[in-house]
């Protein structure tokens, strides 16, 4: 058995958060330090398995001596740094960002979006009925997952998950510029004609529901989707010997979707097409047994 070398512990950095002295590991982000201190900083584009992209700008905080607000998701802690997370300037910035996002896209399935809009007093309707919106119909071109770009905030997480950070398939990218920028396949081809391998790792990281399981999309349309009534059970995928962990989301004794724990050292939240979508045999076995 090969011994795993021990790494030296990371040096602790002393900084101040809202006037309170805290210590954080060197190399960690301000968002990490805030969460460790129990401070609730809103964020949409940050993902615990991806490199920060600084796309949504909802997590901005004020750093003493800095000319501009800093994105907490990517700014690293520094010795003797003084950070204020709840200043009028930071709150106003978050309010405007939430207003712009909610006025142009559908945030109805974005976790905590409604809560943050209320907390920061955001008024998306103040831009009027003529405010430009995405207004795209959902793309349903396969039986596994749906692309609803009306809910997309261009956080780039799906692009990173499909690209060099995880899957290395590069089936999707950002096309267009300005307000016409959108997530797209190469030449805007149907998903079935693209390089997509249907691993669903883009769904795993999507923060708004722009990418969702076909089962979830259909159940939401029928009004039967109920996360409060769902149970989650983590098991091991039986398709091969890698040992990927699966979390089965079950509602009314049926699997409605499959995810993977982000802290699992094997998968880090990622799966292949079999692990994420190949659960029908379990359903069929249970139905035949009944």
UniProtKB/TrEMBL annotation:
The keyword Cell division does not apply. This is Respiratory chain oxidoreductase. GO terms for molecular function: 4 iron, 4 sulfur cluster binding; metal ion binding; oxidoreductase activity. InterPro entries: 2Fe-2S_ferredoxin-like_sf, 2Fe-2S_ferredoxin-type, 4Fe4S_Fe-S-bd, 4Fe4S_Fe_S_CS, Mopterin_OxRdtase_4Fe-4S_dom, MopterinOxRdtase_cofactor_BS, PSI_iron-sulfur_center. Residues 11-89 form the 2Fe-2S ferredoxin-type domain. Transmembrane segments: none annotated. Keywords: 4Fe-4S, Iron, Iron-sulfur, Metal-binding, Repeat. Residues 230-286 form the 4Fe-4S Mo/W bis-MGD-type domain. PANTHER family: HYDROGENASE SUBUNIT, PHOTOSYSTEM I IRON-SULFUR CENTER-RELATED. Signal peptide: none annotated. It comes from Streptomyces violaceusniger. Pfam families: Fer2_4, Fer4_7, Molybdop_Fe4S4. Residues 143-162, 188-216 form the 4Fe-4S ferredoxin-type domain.
């Amino acid at each position: 058995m090969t011994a795993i070398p021990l790494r030296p512990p990371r040096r602790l950095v002393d900084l101040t958060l809202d006037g309170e002295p805290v210590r954080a590991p060197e190399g960690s982000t301000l968002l990490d330090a805030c969460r460790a201190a129990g401070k609730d900083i809103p964020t949409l584009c940050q993902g615990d398995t991806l490199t920060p992209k600084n796309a949504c700008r909802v997590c901005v905080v004020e750093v003493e001596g800095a000319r501009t607000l800093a994105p907490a998701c990517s700014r690293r802690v520094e010795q003797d740094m003084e950070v204020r997370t709840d200043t009028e300037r930071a709150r106003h910035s978050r309010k405007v960002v939430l207003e712009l996002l909610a006025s142009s896209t559908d945030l109805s399935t974005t976790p905590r979006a409604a809560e943050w809009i209320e907390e920061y007093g955001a008024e998306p309707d103040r831009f009027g009925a003529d405010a430009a919106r995405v207004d795209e119909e959902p793309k349903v071109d396969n039986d596994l997952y749906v692309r609803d770009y009306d809910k997309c905030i261009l956080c780039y997480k799906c692009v990173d998950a499909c690209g060099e950070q995880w899957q290395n398939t590069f089936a999707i990218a950002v096309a267009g510029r300005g307000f016409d920028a959108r997530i797209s396949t190469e030449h805007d081809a149907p998903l079935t004609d693209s390089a997509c391998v249907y691993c669903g790792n883009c769904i795993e990281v999507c923060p708004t529901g722009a990418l969702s399981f076909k089962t979830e999309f259909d159940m939401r349309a029928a009004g039967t989707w109920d996360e409060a009534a769902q149970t989650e059970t983590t098991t091991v995928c039986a398709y091969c010997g890698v040992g990927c962990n699966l979390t089965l989301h079950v509602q009314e004794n049926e699997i409605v979707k499959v995810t993977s724990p982000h802290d699992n050292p094997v998968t880090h939240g990622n799966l292949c097409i079999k692990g994420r979508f190949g659960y029908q045999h379990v359903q069929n076995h249970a139905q035949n047994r009944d």
